[in-house]
């Protein structure tokens, strides 16, 4: 389809006498808003209960739910002199919390459930634990108490019977931390051998972990539990209203998860996982009524601890207590609960807070836009020491400021690569850019002496990533484009120069390309910690985009010579990419000039957006990316030579530039198809609504329960639909100039608004048969470029336009109509 470009600084409306399209009706986008109505959020239903729980609807505020549990009986003990040996065991360490810890097999028979055997062959089997009793013992079976960081799922139990080993029991698919294993028949023996052939894969690794093996079948009273569902991922501080309890301080343990699949006796992720915590939050319930708010800290010393803020959809409440929490909390008694709720701490995106909006004739696209907006809202929160990534991420310079965290659950740290997408989503929905600016300015304030800019505050601003200083440059340009804050650009201009003229030249090779490995960068990572080295197309294409953005910042701050110099360098790098990294046999850019031949989604997409690729190359490269299409998106590699699941892993982060490239290459149908496969999959699979950090083989959460199911870097559908489908984008800082270039495809109509420093810029277009009409209303004092399809008749205010002509207008309301 050919398009005409008209320059105008005002409103463009449908010509009089033309039947109004649906796009002219009153906006109805408010019905798609996802966020809760207030900060007091309640669960929507009780999903399940086990054990002695009466009136579980009391958890929803309908009366009182009562949990009861009798005291468990004493555990059987092995005869004196019992020992244990194993096929391997992990070396001692500090347990991640500064407390020395051992993992030898004797921990499985020492009577202390706080110690455990941990094998030393991660993900490799079999793992064998052999127990030799101090004297023969009569056994109807054994009970295996695992560690909450992962349980043996498949294992056999053998006994030495009449001088020979025989299998007395087999277990498959185990998920219980405490598993009673009855033998096929009772036996008197002095030796028991447990052989593990599969373990749970957890954030702490895939190891066999056994805290105790008790000689006998232990039948503890069932733990009373209830699982409540908040209906979608939420974030904040959980609260429980207790109506009272028995006088023995019964314990309540809370496990959180974004998905049911990874909700068990431990949370899918909690910050204390990094220090060897139990994976749950604990509270000792007093006898008198009280409202407990989950707060990071412990009741006394290291006992009865909780992590505070959580991102989750599902909450599992249990009447139970850790053995190490005795006597402050007991695993038995009675607890009465009159309600569960959440203090919602992220940005609360209600209809009244939207300063930008989107709506179209396609209901699915509308839902994905607002679901992504909500995903972004979950990460837009105040930076608090108690809530951020515990791996050295707290920074006094960010404390108390509004930031864009990468995820609701984890890592809860503002990474600049994530801001590259979540910042755009922020500008197009709610906020004036404060959250993004706080992050960008803080990272620049921590620039290294050689010009490298840290990716985030994690590890005290030292995490070595190769590509993220480039994202700081492009994100800074986006921030200035959308907000007009040239004062920020001026304040950090010297940081920009140092990054582009000091650090990146230090990792540039003789062919003029960035090469990871130079200047000590061999161990540097990138957005996915991918083990690639040398001349990587993604790094170099992103470099070109950063140089182009830096030129815009230079011109906006009165440094035209720098702008020219950087654009010249961008042109030279582009030429080198085409000379050395284009693979004519595949019709796509190589992932890297080093190692196995493969082609990446990231490099090819950015090469198109940077203008490195010709139209012919762009078409060919996009076809290559589509060749491996999956039901849940397009994979980020075309083979598995870099990582074992390269052809099965989908990142919305790297898919966003592909969507942009498709729209801008005239492939609207394929862009919409990709959106619907990827965002449609996430919307219809647990937890629903929010956008995941990554999708793995078969459409799974790519890092199991550790995966963030609400991640800001996955919200690119918002700028893709607003900037590309609707077509509204800034062309210079603060929308002083702008572009409206719709890419409608088969969509019947679309409309929306974008906030600018001078007011709302709205657009509305529709296509009915051979007629295309467009309405744009822009603030006075701005000017813009309008791109519409060519046709047999093109009218502006009823006057015909010359084919291919451009018309500058000022102020007021204007009409563009195209008859094709």
UniProtKB/TrEMBL annotation:
UniProt keyword annotation of Methyltransferase present: no
Domain Alpha-L-rhamnosidase C-terminal: 727-792
Region (Disordered): 72-103
Signal peptide bounds: 1-25
Alphabetized Pfam families for the sequence: Bac_rhamnosid6H, Bac_rhamnosid_C, F5_F8_type_C
InterPro entries given in the database record: 6-hairpin_glycosidase_sf (IPR008928), 6hp_glycosidase-like_sf (IPR012341), Bac_rhamnosid6H (IPR035396), Bac_rhamnosid_C (IPR035398), FA58C (IPR000421), Galactose-bd-like_sf (IPR008979)
Domain Alpha-L-rhamnosidase six-hairpin glycosidase: 406-626
Gene3D superfamilies: 1.50.10.10, Galactose-binding domain-like, Maltose phosphorylase, domain 3
Keywords tagged on the record: Signal
All residue ranges annotated as the F5/8 type C domain in the record: 99-208
Full protein name: Alpha-L-rhamnosidase
Organism of this sequence: Amycolatopsis bullii
